[in-house]
Amino acid sequence: MPLRNRLPFYEPYSDDQISAIENHADRILDEVGVEFRGDEEALELFRGAGARVDGERVRFEPGLAAHLCSTAPSRFEMHGRDGRTLPIGGDNVAFLPAYGSPFVTDLDQGRRYATLADFENIVKMTYSTPWLHHSGGTVCEPVDVPVNKRHLDMVYAHLRWSTKPFMGAVTAPERAEDSIAMARMVFGAEFLGDHCVIQGNINVNSPLVWDDVMSGALKAYARANQGCVISPFIIGGAMGPVTIPALVAQAHAEAMTGIALSQLVRPGSPMVYGNFLTTMNLRSGAPTFGTAESTLATYAVGQLARRLGLPLRCGAHYTASKIADGQAMTESVDSMSAGILAGTNYVIHAAGWLEGGLTFGYEKFAMDLDRCAMLHKQLGGITVDDEQLGMDAYLEAGPGGNYLACGHTMRHYATANHESSLADTNSFEQWTDDGALDIAQRANRQWKQMLAEYEPPPICEAVDRELLAFIDDRRKAAPDAWY
Fold first, then answer.
1. Sheet holding 57-59, edge to edge
2. Which of 91, 110, 126, 132 is the most buried (most CB within 10 A)?
3. Cβ 173 vs Cβ 220: under 8 Å
């Protein structure tokens, strides 16, 4: 079921402060500009829209980039192949699994390169849980499949083993086109033309550079009226200055240029204003997560997205930890909480992220799901009415009475409190008798149970054959490439 955030968003910065950041973003775009490398079409589109183009450098008069973003919808719906819809924007929140890890890890086999079998496992677990709303994209990199062909297997896995909305390939424009073509086989050309069923996760090559791979994939999805998440990837001190206002302004400028391009290709194509902004250890150069600085930046990003009137992607269960330990959950909770308070609509990496994104953790996935489940309850807020105020409980039990046995408690016994599927609240003796398992060990048992109980959704046999024939044709069309 769709998740709605019924709590107020946290907006700690004044209008003057946010306006100053917006003005600085405009100054960056006007005085420094953004490069679109190897994409003559993008340069011509921006030139025609009034931007100043000098070689591959594009500069925008103040206000132009925001104006070009104005045709992107503030809300849209994604459609699953089972007919269910996922609203994006407003007060809606969508949780997705982790994205892009070349490694996976679990307690049984340890850290290893990800395979297609791992990819399919993650898709199946994501389909099985009610706490994730979207199948994700490159949930891990299946390195046992050639680089130039693995997108076919990944898209097929999303379409065959799940019915939730999903992301397609972005590592080459033609792979994006393959992804859209496969979605079209399942949903039909007419339906896909008017409805969003697939997205691309588009990263700016921060600082202030777009290459033709990312801009080409972005244009492919926009032309098909499908969605993209436009996400600058900025680590303070490496891809931008170390100060928070500067980083936020740069991220705002970069995100706007991608959304602007999408709207020049097809006005009204559905886009998400994304952000991946964190800090680094300035002694070692290692990225850090869940820090005070990244939290403060996230709040500003939320305010900027709402002023643009666009759905927001930020926050996630981020961590630099290598294993599902206390560091992992502390950093993850801090990162996710900042995004929730900032008003995020779309959370990539809600489950499974480890080692700064290098590794997908099976146990971490189960632990993150447990927290996503809690957030479902938390974001619903409270209802204040006669039943919830429970006057009949006071009248029945009275002073010094037993409220556990009263009728009001019995009516709400099963639903009053969210119950964690992983936390152990037994006595020490009970916990010891049950094997003295820590939370990672309990999570190990849980993800295995999820896979054991997985049941694949049905699919039209004719459509399945068409997909497999398409994949076979594409595989034969080119030799394998491993880089």
1. 52-54, 57-59, 34-37, 209-211
2. 126
3. yes
